[in-house]
Amino acid sequence: MSLSPRAARAARVIGTSTAAAALSLAAAHTALACTIGDFTAVPLCDAQGNGVIRVTDKDASGTPATIGLYLQLTMADSHEERLVDTETIAHPTAEGVSVDLKPLDWYAGETFRVHVKAGDQVDDDITPMVVIPDVTCGASASASASASAQPSTSPEPSSSPSASSPSSTESSSPVPAASNAPSPAGGGTHLAETGAGNGTTAIAGTAAALVAAGGGIVVALRRRAGRGSR
Question: What value does the mean pLDDT take over residues 191-202?
Answer without folding.
Answer: 50
